[in-house]
Amino acid sequence: MIITIGREFGSGGRELGRRLSEILGIAYYDQEIITEIARRTDLSERYVQEMSEKRPMYNTFPIHTGRSFYYMQNSPLNLSFSIFQEQSAIIREMAKKSDCVIVGRCADDVLRESNPFRIFVYAEMESRLKRCRQKAPKDEHLSDKEMIANIRRIDKNRSRYYELYTGKTWGDRLLYDLCINTTRIPVEDAAAMTAKIVKK
């Protein structure tokens, strides 16, 4: 059983994935993928995270933690594609190892030959804004306008990243087996209902 989850920022998709893995008793992969890429390449986790869901761009912080990752230094674009290739290899390894839930990172397309159950999670902006407020650091003081702009920016980056590496449209309902609107459904209830569906 392989379940992939794409999600709008603030929709609760990551939480849904974690809860779903707990209900089904299967592995959950998200940040673990970033950690493994950093371990294999000696790139800093911060840099890998920055590159993992957005189009290639120049960055101002150090990208290495140790020795040089020499074959990926030609350009930000080459570096990004190299990271994506490493990420894809790790995702395939994880999927072969055991039943699992994998969040983001084009996993639905990377694992297309394994016929994963593909989920996309979305919600109305008001609901996403409320969820972001609840999870925001106490010292964060963004206005609603600023937070909405941030949500849209992250979604735009995810969309461009997905399009770049798959040639497909992020969020297109035809690419998924189940689309979940969490605006009026608590994430825990959505996870329970989804578990019943994938078990069939």
Topology:
Layout: E1 2-7, H1 13-24, E2 27-29, H2 31-41, H3 45-51, H4 76-97, E3 100-103, H5 107-110, E4 117-122, H6 125-135, H7 144-166, E5 178-181, H8 187-199
Parallel strand pairs: 1-3, 1-4, 2-3, 4-5
Keywords: Kinase, Transferase
GO molecular function, one term: kinase activity
Pfam families: Cytidylate_kin2
Question: Quick recap of the structure?
Answer:
With about 200 residues, the protein is an alpha/beta fold. About 50% of the residues lie in helices and about 10% in strands.
Separate helix tally = 8
Helix content: 40-55%
Question: What strand line-up does the widest sheet have?
Answer: 2-3-1-4-5
Intertermini distance: 11 Å
The secondary-structure element order is EHEHHHEHEHHEH
User: What structural category do the secondary elements indicate?
Assistant: alpha/beta
Strand coverage percent: 5-15%
Q: Which regions have little confidence, pLDDT < 50, spanning 5+ residues?
A: 58-73
- Overall geometry comes to globular
Tell me the Rg in angstroms: 17 Å
The biggest beta sheet is recorded as: 5 strands, parallel
**Count of extended strands:** 5
Question: What would the average pLDDT be, to the nearest integer?
Answer: 85
Keywords: Kinase, Transferase
Pfam families: Cytidylate_kin2
GO molecular function, one term: kinase activity
InterPro entries: P-loop_NTPase (IPR027417)
